Amino acid sequence: MKTKLFIITPPFTQLNTPYPATAYIKGFLNTKNIESVQADLGIEVILELFSKEGLKNLFKVYEDKQEVRSKSNQNLVDAEKISDNSKRIFALQDEYLKTIDAVIAFLQGKNPTLALQICQEDFLPEASRFVQLEELDWAFGTMGTQDKAKHLATLYLEDISDFIVECVDENFGFSRYAERLGRSANSFDELYQALQQEPTYIDRVLISILKERIESVKPTLFLISVPFPGNLYSAFRCAQWVKEHHPEIRISMGGGFPNTELRSLSDARVFEFFDFITLDDGEVPIELIVDNCELKVSDEYKRTFLLEDGKVIYKNNSLRHDYKQSQVGTPDYSDLLLDKYISVIEIVNPMHRMWSDGRWNKLTMAHGCYWGKCTFCDISLDYIKVYEPVAASLLCDRMEDMMKQTGQNGFHYVDEAAPPALMRALALEILRRKLAVTWWTNIRFEKSFSADLCLLLKASGCIAVSGGLEVASDRLLKLIDKGVTVEQVAKVTRNFTEAGIMVHAYLMYGYPTQTVQETVDSLEMVRQLFEAGVLQSGFWHQFAMTAHSPVGMYPEKFGVVKETEAIGTFANNDINYTDKTGIDHDKFSFGLKKSLFNFMHGICFDYELQDWFDFKIPKTKIGSDFIYDALQESEDFNIKPTAKIVWLGGKPFTEAFTKSKKGNSWEMLTLTFHDKKESFSVQTNKNEGEWLVEILQKISSSKTKTYTFQEIKTDFETNFEDFELFWYSKPVNTLREFGLLVL
Length: 743
Description:
The chain is α/β, with parallel strands linked by helices and about 750 residues long. Helices cover about 40% and strands about 15% of the residues. It has a 7-stranded mixed beta sheet with strand order 2-1-5-6-7-8-9, sandwiched between helices. Helix 2 packs across helix 12 and helix 22 (about 515-530) runs parallel beside helix 24 (about 590-600). The protein starts with a strand and ends with a strand.
């Protein structure tokens, strides 16, 4: 029997764009002519909930609950538990029913004129989320009407979400569901118990959609991709329903959660729901499962858990190699409801909003991480350890294919850390093909990101980068093996910012052996980076020790002690530990996040660091001008002979004239250039000017061949003398300001 796959992402991940795993797998299956259909059940459940009919049902469920309590004399006690906020939302239900469909259509980009109504602030019903509006009102000066309306509509949805959590289903969250059950679930007991309970209201909505899809697709194999703990419970609910109602369908789980958490799985009860659980790259494991389902004789598997004789077995007996990145095909977004995703703006910060606003095609420049040393990271696992870049030409082919398919030219490269050399090659290829694209990615703050490389990336459509500054302390950066210093990060972020590329920094606190003084100094560094204008966005994460990181594997080297050596029978990743410093890092969380929120909005730089905390902290030992001074240091102007020289501008208009002085005359040339913003001219002697026009054509970003500094120098010196004198002359300096790049 021919296999047909149904591949889903269970609720919930993102509202604005599909999580890419199913599109990657479908793209691969296309290369093997294996039929598949994909769905993002997260967005489908959200659209069902946040509709006129959905809200009617929601309010009815709440009413019914209240009625049941009333009959069982619980009403008095429970009524006291319902907050005034939820009572207000329930009282305003007609206003919510009237506005919900119009608001969702607006957030889907289908109803832009509604922005004018929303911004008048008497259209949407308002509950507790709108209280913060007064604090943020000043920030709307920098936002257009559409953005302000998106932000207000987001607050409106969050109000409804608060009502759902309090009155209908406490597990609900826009980007996660029952996440607590998936976090640190060393034992399967709690999750298993939850799955024996009556389905929740959200479960029932999910199951009704799943039932419809299973009946229309009629798959033989059901793949569930579980990227995060917040998708785990729903994945099991989906599998449970299919097992019960369609026992003939085989079910497999893969994705980021099993890859990191389920590597030591031994609880047989998991296989009451799933037939297979695969680890790491999914292409070969899935292909072999398909073979097994079709042939029913082969017993070859790759990185797959299954049940044999009542015991969990890990099978990795296939000799088939994983596919190269060039062989896995282009991600395929067909079947997904691309025009129905919802763009929201949770925070008034241009960089922060990129995760939640706008539809992005997702691609990967390189499998794994080219650095692969950070001690907090899962560097022992294949998704980090196995590094394999994709050729820039193939990346551009995939971009062009995806633009045709989705109609979207925005790309989020979801790399662990995009390699600078590959980013350069990609930017040159985009410019060569004259593609109009927008893209952003995750990076390391490498010194390779020179001012000129950042200008090239910007010219190709790069609008933002995110990268780990982690702990802004050189001692701890060394312990982390980050390979950067705070000073270097400042210079690199300056280069990106001056090129017009936004920068987001991942920040960390509570790293093993981190002292209170280092936390305070780290905050001071972050304050100075924002004040200098070289960081636009950031987020503080508290250090978490994971089983597959160097800290988790060799805790004694980092001054921490594991609370237990026991390995769970279900999930095994987050490890509880004791830091020998004995510092309670949790207490810094609120102050760090509140200060950062203000810095991101460009205010409160003059506050004392003590003002952010309600307990005594030491004074910072960082000089108040540390970052400023680091940014004043002059760049190294020595150019390597192998450096590539690229001209981003066009062909100039030339005009010859004669210059006379004290009886002598010279033939001169004026070169007039037009770039997108302005026109400018340079003057040289005629012969050098003609050579310059010719060489600019050769090194244009539209040409396939790139020339090195040495090649240009040699070319110049076959006709003239003293290339250095020419290179550092006023005409070339002017061109350097307008797109003559040294890479």
